[in-house]
Specification:
Number of helices: 6
CATH architecture of the largest domain: 3-Layer(aba) Sandwich
Strand content: 35-45%
Strand order of the largest sheet: 10-9-8-7-11-12-15
Helix content: 10-25%
Shape: globular
Radius of gyration: 17 Å
Number of strands: 15
Bound molecules: FE2/S2 (inorganic) cluster
Number of domains: 2
Distance between the termini: 29 Å
CATH superfamily of the largest domain: Nucleotide-binding domain of ferredoxin-NADP reductase (FNR) module
Amino acid sequence: MMERQLLPIIKQSQIAYETFEIVFRTSLAQQLKPGQFVHIALPNHILRRPISVANVNPIENTFTIIFKIFGDGTKMLSTYQVGNTLDVILPCGSHYPIEDLHVRKALIVGGGVGVPPLYYLAKTLKEKGVDVTSILGFQGKEHVFYEEKFQQLGDTHIATNDGSYGVKGFVTDVIKQIEPEFDYYFSCGPTPMLQAVTNVMGDKQGFISLEERMGCGVGTCYACIVPLKSNPEKSLKICKDGPVFAANEVVL
Ligand code: FES
């Protein structure tokens, strides 16, 4: 059940170029599943900002979000400090259905602000004894974050578009290079990246999160409609039916 709460910020820091991390405390932290998002209200902004959950600490009852500045709202959010509170609705959206899968080896493929939800997913998979390989793409060196945290979970490869760090190129270049073994893949990032990833993967089993394509996050703006592959006349809403979908469920 979604709830609206006023949540205190207990940690805030900048972790990469225009990229910020905020940790909130709430009794609902344990209910947040990998792939889900929270919906944050900001003063003078009519629409809440949907932001994915990057980590949960069930002992301390905290969860983490990571976001990049790309407009007024996220710019304002980046000024919030420890001690401030924010009006948050949680938990929102669908999650990676890992309880129902028999995963032994997982491949994580993330790009930019699509990386955060995959950290919580990778950590949860690792805790279940799954072997995790991660391939993460960023624009350039100063945009890279959480590399060590992913490394603690398994083999991790970084690609940058400008070649300033890791492999020069796209996450799909790394996939072709290292030919990872896996039984499910999990991906989140900008639409062109997800198109490229699902193309390379063909009919391999996987799940993608389209969280980057959300607008209002509550089903009213229709900015997030995606047609079903099996029946393009029918469509789903990323904010209500997603953000997580089976890899070949929707047209990207
Ligand atoms: Fe507005 Fe889904 S994000 S309807």
